[in-house]
Automatic annotation (TrEMBL):
The keyword Signal applies. It comes from the Bacteria. PROSITE patterns: PROKAR_LIPOPROTEIN. Residues 35-195 form the ABC-type transport auxiliary lipoprotein component domain. Keywords: Signal. This is Cholesterol transport system auxiliary component. InterPro entries: ABC_trans_aux.
Amino acid sequence: MLPRSFLPALLLALGTSGCAAISALDSASEPLDIYELQTPVIEGAARRGWAELVVEEPIASGALSTDRIMIRPGPLQAQYLPGARWSDETPAMLQTLLVRSISETGAFASVGRAPLGGQGDYALLGELTDFQAESYGTDAPVTVHLRLMLRLVRERDSSVVASRTFEVRQPAADDETASLVPAFDLAARKMVSEILPWAARAGGGA
């Protein structure tokens, strides 16, 4: 049986714990600002291709497979911007950018996430290794760093037609959301703009 003097302290502890749990639930339910990236401006269309291209969602580490906006204060540390997120998980968002952008070039007869029939002509496979802002050390410059390894595979024989790594570094004014999101947008548009002619040439559409 508990001493009478212990009961007030126990009730106070339970009340405090309950308040902390309610506070955590309240913060988890706070709405986050949602951001999405734009496709680059397509300067003229390529010669219309005949092939069907399937763009697979890039594989990525658990730290990148999220809709949170990552910033690294050190090479081995991952943090996320408070109060902000992407419109989709990062690999899926990048897949959408590639599907839309490659489709607009006209270099392929069709571009999608899944083949129209039983199998497409080509598949674009990717591994996303970097999609974050970096600021290593006090007063260090802030840079958005994107790195995507791509392989274009011919479906009928599973042969790799072409492979290349695309990497972009874009300076940002500071580590505030208002500065980082435009820097991410510019970096992504630069990277996708480099991917488009490569994919068109590799797939025989240009």
